[in-house]
Write the structure tokens for this entry.
Amino acid sequence: MTQVDFYVLRQAGEQARRVFACKLAEKAYRLENTVHIEAASEAEAAELDTLLWTFRDGSFVPHEVLGAKDPESPVTIGYPGASGPVRDLLINLGSDIPASAVSFPRVAELVSSDDDSKQQSRARFANYRDQGHEIKTHKL
């Protein structure tokens, strides 16, 4: 079964989730893990592409947005319709659980403090629980 970690952020809004996704991807990369970030849309994937270079001074996270060729970078960014290969970690920024989530050994679900994000995460939590996945919650 997949290990699912819910990271509950103190900050509100999608930008807080995106910045934390970058920090988590950087940490996983430094630990020599491969990462796939599932964005909610193609536009959000483009925003993450830029943010991964700028979220922190001196940050370096080799990555690429999925395209026509097979990815070579340890970190990939996809979106519905352009899902990537199975990696060590899936960071989900979408409102739904990606169909491929059960293929990953670990999934990170990021929850901001706004009510909409909390409500969507509760539905995902229940879905993972009902499927029998190991779930951990981390309040940051």
Remarks:
- The chain has a mean pLDDT of 93.
- Helices lie at 14-30, 42-54, 115-130.
